[in-house]
């Protein structure tokens, strides 16, 4: 147990390396071309920024 108290950081590094290896393996399995062919359609974009400017401007008008 004394070894674990002194070298706990090595266990964390091994865990992170294992995690990165698994992520790399999973990403290698993704077929980008197949996904792009069967990509779901996105709903139309709704932009509500035009609604905040409906009121008259408070700036004085130039003559």
From TrEMBL:
Query: Which keywords has UniProt assigned to this entry?
Result: Cell membrane, Membrane, Transmembrane, Transmembrane helix
The protein, known as: YpfN family protein
Q: Positions of the region Disordered?
A: 38-63
Give a yes or no for keyword Cell division in this entry: no
| Pfam families registered for this protein in UniProt | UPF0370
Segments of skewed composition (Acidic residues): 52-63
- Mark out the compositionally biased spans (Basic and acidic residues): 38-51
Membrane-spanning intervals of the chain: 6-24
**Native organism:** Rosenbergiella gaditana
């Amino acid at each position: 147990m004394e070894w674990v108290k002194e070298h706990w950081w090595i266990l964390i590094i091994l865990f992170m390396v294992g995690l990165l290896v698994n992520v790399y393996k999973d990403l290698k399995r993704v077929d980008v071309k197949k996904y792009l062919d069967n990509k779901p359609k996105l709903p139309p974009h709704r932009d509500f920024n035009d609604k905040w400017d409906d009121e008259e401007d408070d700036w004085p008008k130039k003559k």
